[in-house]
Amino acid sequence: MIKRFFYIFSVLILTHGLTGCSTNPATGKNQFTALMSPSQELQIGAKEHSKIIKQYGIYDDKKLGEYMSRVGAKVVKYTERPEVEYKFYLLDSPMINAFALPGGYIYMTRGLLSLANSEAEMAGVLAHETGHITARHSAERYSRGMVTSLGAMVLSAAVGSSGVSQALGIGSDLFMKSYSRGQEMQADSLGIRYLVRSGYNPKAMAGFLRNLQADSALQDMVDKKKSSKGGGYFATHPATQDRVNKTISEAQQYAGQGANNKWIDNRSSYLRMLDGVIYGDSAEQGFARGRNFYHPNMGFKFSVPENYKIINQPSQVIAAAKNGAVIIFDIALNKNALSPMSFIKDVWMHGEPVTGAENIRVNGMSAATASFNGNINGRPMQVQLVAIKWSDNKVVRFQVAIPNGLSSAQLNDLKRSTYSFSRMSEKEKRDMRPYRIKIIVSKAGDSVAKLARRMAQSDHKEQRFRVLNGLSPSDKIIPNRLYKIVVD
């Protein structure tokens, strides 16, 4: 067996050396992509595309989606891979992110559109993602044994048995494996090339990168962190100052070019397209307001303790505290219309032992609770389970991971969270609306402070306004100019 293994390994190495490399027309460099052909790229892209759409959904604004596609078509018109059928999708997600799949699938979230401040900046992001496709970075990583498929990795919870693991499972979220520094810079260079060829201002890419850095710093401030590794766009597109500087330098090489020495920016027309776009979570996804979570479309609400960060994901809501406590909320199918207690014991825990099992009522709804002891990320915790009957075939679930050593006051706060779950009234459903982008025209005498007071968020208003509009700390308001604010 060992001899056979080394024989196969030798053949693979020989094949790699003799036939695995080809010259990429976009980069002009030899590239090992033998284990993923262009036809396989298309198959993989089509397969993963359905997962993306199921997970996030398409943003319900046909006009805006068609606008993004027109800009994308303009960007990809002069690529070195004309045989690829490029397709563009606007995802209904508040995350600031964009990514590409093999086979020409390019995605952008409405969260990213809200942060961009011109058509050229949006085009820069699409051009960068196009660069990943023309450079065949996914095929290269796959062929070199790198993990490139979309996977499920949101929270790791190891508790030692299948039933307990299922109880702590919090669903999945799609992610793309981070690109290497070299691949990011290569995609930047190709993206600038495609911007220039399509007439867009090549400086827009660097401008948007600065917007991203400012937004990341703002989120750190809101979360009171010293620094972060970066979520969203930076999670899949590592950014370094060298990369930003290189993008600026490459853009400067094209100075004086463009039609009549003018580049396309289209700031005003882009901002007008954003007027009314949902900002943050939507009514379909539910949204947080302070320490409360509301889901108008499904008609429920609940609250979490003070200083818990609410993370709204497609299949669950997570509230986490610095003390290690975690609340996980989701809704599960109850195919056999079991009682909440039977659901906990027979379905949720699959017969695994629990303690403290008790039938309860939560705001008039039949419910049950039980607990077990386990370890999460190597830390001993008690896990409290609460199942609430939502309908004949659906059960609301709360999973509360409680670290050892919490005070009685902290424990009571967690208990109150699960008991706060209730149905929304018709008035609450009408009154609780998601945030939206509103485009306003500045007037003489307007200042950042004055316009920022109109922002719907309750904290860091000036900083949020500056980041949203791509303004530096020293930039002032220009009269008769369009700006973005967030309203409810």
Which of globular, elongated, flat, extended, rod-shaped describes the shape?
globular
Low-confidence stretches: 1-19, 31-35, 142-176
The number of distinct structural domains comes to: 3
The whole-angstrom Rg is 25 Å
Helix content: 25-40%
Number of strands: 19
- The mean pLDDT is 81
**Count of alpha and pi helical runs:** 17
- State the separation between the terminal residues, measured CA to CA: 66 Å
Residue fraction in strands: 15-25%
As laid out across the biggest beta sheet, the strand order is 10-11-12-16-15-14-13
Structural class by sheet pairing and helices: alpha+beta
How does this structure look, described?
This protein is of the alpha+beta class. It folds into three domains: 244 residues, no CATH class; 138 residues, Mog1/PsbP, alpha/beta/alpha sandwich (Protein Transport Mog1p, Chain A); 54 residues, Membrane-bound Lytic Murein Transglycosylase D, Chain A, CATH 3.10.350. The strands form five sheets. It has a seven-stranded antiparallel β-sheet with strand order 10-11-12-16-15-14-13, with helices on both faces. Strands 7-8-9-17 form a four-stranded antiparallel β-sheet. A three-stranded mixed β-sheet has the order 3-5-4. A hairpin with a 2-residue loop joins strand 15 and strand 16. Helix 3 crosses helix 5 and helix 5 crosses helix 9.
